[in-house]
Amino acid sequence: MRKVVVVRPGQSRGPSQAPELVFGAVSPELLEEFLVEVAKENDSNLRGLSRHAGSFKLPRLIEFIFLLCDQLELHPFTRYQAVEILERFMIRYIEKLRSSPQRDSDKRKLEQCGWGLLQVKMRDHFILRIMSCVQIASKLSFHYQIVNNAIALKFLQSLGYSYKKEDILNSELLILKTLSFEVNIPSPFTHTETLLEVMGYNDPSVPVKYLHSISLTVLKYVYLTRNTIYENLLKIAIENSSPSDLQKAKFVSVKEDCMLLAVGVIGASAFILNYTPWDKVMEQLASISGVTEESISEFSQVILRQILAGTSYAQ
User: Fold this and answer.
1) In whole angstroms, how far apart are CA 6 and each of 22, 53, 123, 164, 188?
2) Which domains, ranges and CATH numbers included, belong to the chain?
3) Model confidence pLDDT, tens digit, residues 6-60
4) CB-neighbour burial class of residue 143 (10 A; exposed 0-12, middle 13-18, buried 19+)
5) DSSP state letter for 290
6) GO terms for biological process (predicted)?
7) pLDDT at site 114
8) How far apart are CA 313 and CA 227, in angstroms?
9) Nearest to 91, CA basis, from 138, 48, 124
10) Which of 5, 75, 2 is nearest to 45 (CA)?
11) If you compute the radius of gyration of the chain from its CA atoms, what whole number of angstroms results?
């Protein structure tokens, strides 16, 4: 597990300095405990990664979920949580389909199907599954807007679908049961906000409010351009512009590392905000997260170059 720095007490910036945000509302002891737990969950998630991880984090699918959450006026937390829930559900659901007892003829047909064909097979209910993941994610952030069955049904009907409330309920139950009700999945949003909170406690000079705003924008951009950004990061890591399939497969754990993504996003955002020497930010992030300064700097620079290049995420 990564080393996690002790949060220094007595240096809280206080909620009154940033009334629009919740930063500074928790005790340093509780914050430290939460940071340790977040790091443990991230490491545990990386150890148990499916080899198909990332298969359902396609740019257009992520964009659709983000737009859906915006349309429903949901908190930013919900969009990232919904993406992670959908990804994990689809992988586990398809793996169960492949491993379930079937007639030999049916099993041979299923084995011949690739991931793409299986997605096509389930496309009739795919929008419903997405909506269910958004519903579940919204309930995890219960102090914000919650998408109940009535809201979900009305929205789906506005898109021309003829689902009933029973369909929505069954879809939500299918996802919950498939995931064994383990839906509070680590997301880069949670990691980013937690790290920013710790930075604010450890150094009151950090403009958390502004850094938070920029970081959320950068995180959204990185999620929508994740393919290009991680491809560039891989090429830099292996010092080769043509990575092999094996190198790409081994790199999956890097792409799914929420802590690495969070520090990279904050590092890039701090460079944009330019409130203090960048080396100091790298040092702060490394001491909090356990990620090396070199890795943070490398990833942040890849993100910044992508932002400056303005490459479209529609791939």
Assistant:
1) 21, 32, 47, 51, 21
2) 27-48+187-309 (1.10.472), 59-178 (1.10.472)
3) 444 444 333 333 334 555 566 777 888 888 888 999 998 898 888 889 889 999 9
4) exposed
5) -
6) reciprocal meiotic recombination
7) 55
8) 8
9) 48
10) 2
11) 21
Chain length of the chain: 315
pLDDT digits (tens, 9 = 90+) for 246-305: 999 999 999 999 999 999 999 999 999 998 899 999 999 999 999 999 999 999 999 999
Closest alpha carbon to 110 in 92, 93, 97, 126:
97
Q: In 3-state terms, what secondary structure has residue 168?
A: helix
Rounded-to-integer distance, Cα 139 and Cα 129, Å? 15
Cβ neighbours of 71 (radius 10 Å): 10
User: Is the CB of residue 297 less than 8 Å from the CB of residue 266?
Assistant: no
Burial, 5: exposed, middle or buried (Cβ in 10 Å; 0-12, 13-18, 19+)? middle
Token pair for 122: 């389930």
d(CA 218, CA 224): 10
User: pTM surpassing 0.85?
Assistant: no
Distance between CA atoms of residues 258 and 274, nearest Å: 24
Tokens in use for 97? Answer: 């389909």
The C-alpha atoms of residue 83 and residue 91 are separated, in whole angstroms, by 12
Positive or negative torsion for Cα 297, 298, 303, 309: positive
Cβ atoms of 133 and 89 within 8 Å: the answer is: yes
CA distance 43 to 37: 10
Give the separation between CA 91 and CA 178, rounded to whole angstroms.
10
